[in-house]
Amino acid sequence: MKTLEELRSYYINILWPELRVLEEERKKSLNKIIISALIIIPLSAFLTYVLTHPFPIIFGVLGVIGANWLFTREYVSNFKTGIIEKIVTCVDDNLKYSKSSYIPQSTFASGKIFKQRIDRYRGDDHVQGTLGQTEVEFSEIHAQYVTRDSKGNRHYHTIFKGLFFVADFNKEFKGTTIVLPDVAEKMFGGLGAMFQSWNKGRGQLVKLEDPEFEKMFVVYGEDQIEPRYILSTSLMRRITDFKKKTKRQIHLSFIGSHIFIAISYRRDLFEPRIFRTLLSFVPIQQYFEDLQLAVGIVEDLNLNTRIWSKQ
Amino acid sequence: MMPGIIIAAVLVLIPVMLYNSLVGKKNQVTNVFASIDTLLKKRYDLIPNLISTVKTYMEHERGTLTEITELRAKATSGQLSDDDKVDLDNKISKALGGIMIAVENYPDLKANQNFLQLQGSLNEIEEQISAARRAYNASVTDYNNAVEMFPTNIMASVMSYKLKKVFEIVAAERKNVDVKGLFSNK
To answer: CA-nearest residue of chain A to B34?
Structure first.
């Protein structure tokens, strides 16, 4: 695990030359977008005015969005191979980065965290590697389901958007244990706990001893013992600390000797911003910290402790 | 007429529900205790292997090794009350813990693949036993709450259900590790 100081020197020595080249590219792309907007918008506004029809301006806006995508596509791709990949190696050189691949939908679904039907599944920024004795992979994922209104229009709703993390767990186990954010108990107290015990689709409700953990999460398992075997008192503590550190909604599951963690984000991860200068340390630090949060899970949850029969 | 039937039905249903929930909770406790028992057996099965592996290396720990063998023999002989089982289990845990610490003095043993594997399995079972104990305590608490809380307490006293004891950590285990004491020997 690298410190911020190490990142700073890495930034100055290795990333800086690359960033300067990319900054030029960013300015060029930005100029192209501005120029195309300056041509398209007045023209379509004029046409709308002359024809008294809203179509030209609608097409104009779509055209600007299209131009934005077209002119930044290459820049984004170069940025990812040039900068993000280097930051990944800086965080840990056992990790491999691939900008366009992502955790397959089958793996995402096998985590059994989200029960809705997935209609649209996208992702990018896949990171994979072995940290100590623990194999990990994670990527950005956006899973959605679709509904249709009375007019037949499609509406997409987010099931999950954020970072999806899968790692080899250090203990062997057979069943399924699911740890979800506790919404019902937070809102309704004891009554909420009663509703949770009726949620049979998830298996048995497992009430754990750690009051802070119980307030944040609700646990379902196939029996009363295995979830406690997985969620030892120390792991519960570590998960609560991790949740406090991220300040985000997290879902976990333990299946087939693997741990799945879904960390929700509103913003896009590892994407460059076209309207801001690249030559600043702040966004680089942000990418670094987002990565380190995921990579740090191995240490935060103590996954490298192999004192059980599983080596 | 109709309201009378409904009231009568409710009056019958309520005791049935209370009764069933109490029986369910009691059985949950028995069920979890049975799984502790299974896990303890699994651990007893490992002990002969462990002893035969470490015996050749650990000359100074002969006393503890014989003690463990004797305790195991007693534990597997059967016909023990639940309290005796718990008591024996605590003694064995303590003795095994002692062995695992003593291993530090035998570098050859620490490098033995067979021993490392056994140690892993033993750690695993210890962790499973501790999980099962926590599950037991949770189900006992659930049961005790039902026995003491209204309205199930009325039914419980009719059924003469008594409070059950939770697993307690033995005094020796509860003591904090004396770090100073550990280093003063060296």
So the answer is: A225
